[in-house]
Amino acid sequence: MTTNRVRGRVFGEIADEYDRIRPSYPAQLVADVLAYAGPPALEVGAGTGKATELFAAHGIDLVATEPDPAMAALLARRVADRPNVTVTVSTFEEYVPERRFGLLLCAQAWHWVDKEVRWQRAAAALAPGGGIALFWNADWPGDPEVTAALRAAHQEFAPHLTLNTGPISDPAGEEAWAADMGMPPGFGDLGTRSYRWERTMSAADYIAYLSTQSAYRLLDEDVRERLFGALRDGLGAQVRLNVETKLYLARHLP
């Protein structure tokens, strides 16, 4: 496995493909977040703006931070017609807010932020009573034949990679997930939401989708190509995915 690249920074290598193939997020999630906490908003690790555009469409004042220049360039183009959005090329750890925010949101990226400082940085960025919304998409094949083909190819070429073959279980209870994420005292009013939906794509697009995930980006190129070749041979024409989007909410207590 390649070790001289930072896992959380490999997405800019394939920014266009990432933007094309990665899914968006449920509209109900956006409504639930904005009902929980209001603008101005700060987005952490905005990527190419999949979540940014959904929140920006509500007209909220939003600062979107993204550390990778290639990803940030796509993000800036996506929101070019949104004067309510400011794009800043920066890590969250290095970003110095000029004001306090009512909402901090992070889609698919909180696990890349330094665990030693992320909650302290969130508290410093939020106004008293401001909310934090963290959310991720997780998916697994909807058909057993696809699951079998994935398992066979991975067992042969990349047995160390973990396959999602069903819903991901959270620690039981809101206090438990907060502890699991390392949330310190000073946050409360915890909440969780889960949104189930489906996504169908061609087998070629599914392989392209895998190629945008960090675990596959970090495979040696020849291993990745053998694995994807086996998937091209083993998958059918289409892949149906069950998707679960999980939302975690917390409030910065005054």
Automatic annotation (TrEMBL):
Name of one Pfam family that matches: Methyltransf_25
Keywords: Methyltransferase, Transferase
One example of a Gene Ontology biological process annotation: methylation
Keyword Transferase belongs to the record: yes
Its EC number(s): 2.1.-.-
Gene Ontology molecular functions: methyltransferase activity
UniProt xrefs under InterPro entries: Diverse_substrate_MTase, Methyltransf_25, SAM-dependent_MTases_sf
Keyword Zinc-finger: no
Residue ranges of every copy of the Methyltransferase domain listed in the record: 42-130
Protein name, UniProt field: Class I SAM-dependent methyltransferase
Organism, scientific name: Nonomuraea bangladeshensis
Lineage: Bacteria, Bacillati, Actinomycetota, Actinomycetes, Streptosporangiales
